[in-house]
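Reviewers of the previous submission asked for a worked example of the structure-prediction workflow described in the proposal, so we include one complete record here. The input consisted solely of the amino acid sequence. No template or homolog information was supplied to the procedure at any stage.
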Amino acid sequence: MKSKIMMTAAAFLSFAIAASHAEEAPIIHRGTENLVAVPFHVTNEADQPIACGAALAHWYSASIGAAAPGATITATLWSNPKTGEIFVLNEHEDNMPIQRLWCGLQGQDVTSGSDVRLERQAGRSEPPIRLDCRLPEAGETLRCQRQDAS
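From that input alone, the workflow returned the following structure tokens.
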């Protein structure tokens, strides 16, 4: 009986120690409260379809949209003016932080892409993102130029 109590105590102690060293789960924020909408417009001036995407973590990315030649990708990103963070929302409206944003040729958008510069300034919201994307004659890399907000 004494050994059974000792084994139970040892198992409980092991569990307690393991639990005390466990990492806390990150807090996931939902919805658009305290966020500002950031219009995202990309005009495809290339002769091939393009796609834009966002890296949300080093192993995960999300599609922002795709456009045929002459068409436009329109989406809404979200900015936290307090921190300068930029988000895309998933189907549950979880705030998914954007680490990197790009546009490239559809099907090879990461390798043929052009990074989209984000301002990310604490104390102000991200300005609207308006891009014109072209494919240079001698290149395989899409070139996207940010237009001034009007």
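Confidence is low (pLDDT under 50) at residues 9-13. We consider this example representative of the routine output the project will generate in years two and three.
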